[in-house]
Amino acid sequence: MTSAAMESTTLVRELILDHIIKGMIVLVATVVLTLGIAVVWRTVGRSRRR
């Protein structure tokens, strides 16, 4: 491989890794947000029943 080809391969790997990391961050944030909404929903639901 030439130097330019190696650099482009490295760049592609870095971009793919960056995309995977950002996707995982969004996934974790979505799960945390969903759990938070569920807790608030249950708390508000209990206070209305009393």
Q: Treating each run of at least 4 consecutive H or I residues as one helix, how many helices?
A: 1
Question: What best-fitting shape do the alpha-carbon axes yield?
Answer: rod-shaped
The largest β sheet comes out as: none
Q: What is the mean predicted local confidence, pLDDT?
A: 90
Nearest-angstrom radius of gyration? 22 Å
In what range is the share of β-strand residues? under 5%
In helices, the fraction of residues equals: over 70%
Structural class call reads mainly alpha
Count of β-strands: 0
Order of helices and strands: H
Spans of at least 5 consecutive residues with low confidence: none
Could you tell me how far the N terminus lies from the C terminus, measured between alpha carbons in angstroms? 72 Å
Report on this structure:
The chain is mostly helical. The protein has a domain at 22-50. It is built from one helix and no strands. The protein is rod-shaped. The model has no long low-confidence stretch (mean pLDDT 90). The chain crosses the membrane at residues 20-41. Keywords: Membrane, Transmembrane, Transmembrane helix.
